[in-house]
Design a protein that fits this description.
Strand content: 15-25%
Largest sheet: 7 strands, mixed
Radius of gyration: 24 Å
Oligomer: single chain
Distance between the termini: 46 Å
Number of helices: 14
CATH class of the largest domain: Alpha Beta
Structural class: alpha/beta
Length: 489
């Protein structure tokens, strides 16, 4: 049996813990069955944004005539776009190679399975198991995987999910037509990407609107723009059966309201119906770690599971599926495990996110419907791009179909309950509100002896930025992370 101080399962945000443990002289095992770097680097936010950016440029060019410019239809060099994506994804090999050189790190390429509360084996791809590993502390960070809805004959369609799209099914060129199952964030982003590249896209969504986590007026706004951009949106739509017809994939669908049936077809089907927990591969029944009915690992405010020496961070604990949230949790855990500072608790009062579709969307805090449901007394403000000089300079006026806006929901004492942005650079425009929503927090370090308040307004202090999550990937990281480069000498 091999003994380790730390055993880390998953190499997304889990790498932050592993590297810190190793630098602190701890003997550390890393277990990873896929590429190093986690979903974000290898099959999620980073490679997808390398598709989003050229799609954004195409959409910008299409609007350029309103500011006095005219461009020819762009010629898409898919091979060059693909090369850039795979170069970034393959950086995972560099990460793995560097970790293998560290004397305190042992890497196991396979799936970790608990054999007892403090022991684990690794199942390798060839079916062979490792020797048993014993750990003092375990950090579970093995994330989530795509949910495949139970559609009759769906396997016949050779469907895609993000894992296979950024894998062995990556297309050699954009499809002529594409059906996307699911109208959430991933579905909306891929609809934007491929419609900009000339693909006829159809979104099939069972709920009554796209982007159900967002404000209803934002969902309606985006739907209108989608339909102007070669995207057919089918909401209130159930899928009865899948199949093939010659070289095309087919779906038999039914409108939930009218009961009207139809068959739609395309070159490919992309499933973006959400995610499920990866906890099922861990054999947690051999531990005292609790999970909820959906398989998410239960954690407390210190990211501890129901077994004292096991922690869970990132997607696998079911608390928001964003890399910036996982990084935030890793930072909290690093503080609590490797420093003598006061133990920190996680705070999810201001979890931001962005959906990099067209138009772009950003969100933090409550929606109007949530504020009503929770009984807050609140007020709402809106401002449209057409009402500011910057928007006017971009050629947006009050009659423009893409006249995006910001909606703010404020409570008593001017507290910010929620902020929602749709339009150009939404992610960047939202971030300052995240900082503001973190302003009134406990001054944990009490650096200034004169400060004896338990609640500190932090005026002129950048602590709220340090304690905030930063949308990833966005240009906000440029300004937020500069704090790490302050020279205190």
């Amino acid at each position: 049996m091999k003994k380790f101080d730390y055993i880390i399962i998953g190499t997304g945000a889990g790498l932050m813990i592993a590297e810190t443990a190793a630098l602190n002289g701890k003997k550390c095992a890393i277990i990873e069955k896929d590429k190093f770097g986690g979903t974000c680097l290898t099959k999620g936010c980073i490679p997808s944004k390398m598709l989003v950016y050229p799609a954004d440029i195409i959409r910008e060019a299409e609007k350029s005539n309103r500011v006095g410019l005219k461009f020819q239809s762009p010629s898409v060099d898919w091979n060059k776009i693909s090369e850039r994506i795979w170069k970034q994804i393959n950086f995972s090999e560099v990460i793995e190679e560097n970790l293998r050189k560290h004397k305190n790190i042992t890497i196991f390429k396979g799936t970790g399975e608990f054999t007892g509360p403090n022991t684990m084996k690794v199942s390798f791809a060839d079916g062979i198991y490792s020797d048993e590993l014993e750990g003092d502390i375990f950090v579970i960070a093995n994330g989530a995987k795509s949910f495949i809805p139970p559609i009759k004959n769906i396997e016949q369609t050779n469907y895609l999910i993000p894992e296979s799209f950024f894998g062995d099914k990556f297309p050699k060129k954009p499809w002529k037509s594409l059906i996307i199952i699911g109208g959430g964030a991933i579905g909306a982003e891929f609809a934007h990407i491929f419609s900009a590249f000339g693909t006829k896209v159809t979104i099939v969504e069972m709920r009554d609107r796209l982007l159900a986590t967002e404000e209803e007026e934002i969902s309606e706004f985006v739907t209108t723009e989608f339909e102007k951009n070669n995207i057919t949106v089918l909401t209130n739509t159930a899928i009865i059966e899948a199949g093939t017809n010659k070289n095309l994939k087919t779906l038999t669908i039914e409108n939930i309201v009218t009961k009207e049936k139809a068959t739609i077809k395309s070159d490919a089907i992309f499933i973006a119906s959400g995610v499920v927990s990866n906890s099922g591969s861990l054999k947690l029944e051999n531990t005292n770690v609790g999970i909820d009915p959906r398989g998410w690992i239960k954690t407390n405010q210190y990211l501890e599971t129901t077994q004292k020496n096991i922690y869970a961070i990132g997607d696998v604990n079911g608390k928001y599926q964003f890399r910036h949230k996982a990084n935030y949790e890793a930072q909290i855990l690093m503080n609590n495990l490797f420093t003598n500072d006061k133990k920190r608790a996680v705070c999810y009062n201001a979890v931001p996110w962005a959906i990099f579709t067209w138009p772009q969307i950003a969100h933090v805090g409550l929606t109007e419907a949530q504020a009503k449901k929770e009984g807050f007394k609140f007020w709402i403000g809106r401002n449209f791009f057409s009402q500011i000089a910057g928007g006017i300079a971009m050629g947006i006026n009050k009659n423009s179909t893409d006249n995006g806006f910001i909606k703010i929901i404020v409570g008593e004492d001017k507290t910010i309950l929620g902020v929602h942005v749709v339009g150009p650079h939404a992610a960047i425009l939202l971030q300052p509100f995240v900082y503001l929503m973190n302003v009134k927090h406990k001054c944990e370090k009490q650096k200034f002896k004169k400060c004896d308040n338990t609640i500190c307004p932090q005026l002129g202090n950048y602590s709220p930025i340090n304690d905030s999550m930063i949308i990833h990937p966005s240009l906000n990281e440029l300004t937020a992370w500069v704090l790490e480069n302050i020279d205190w000498n």
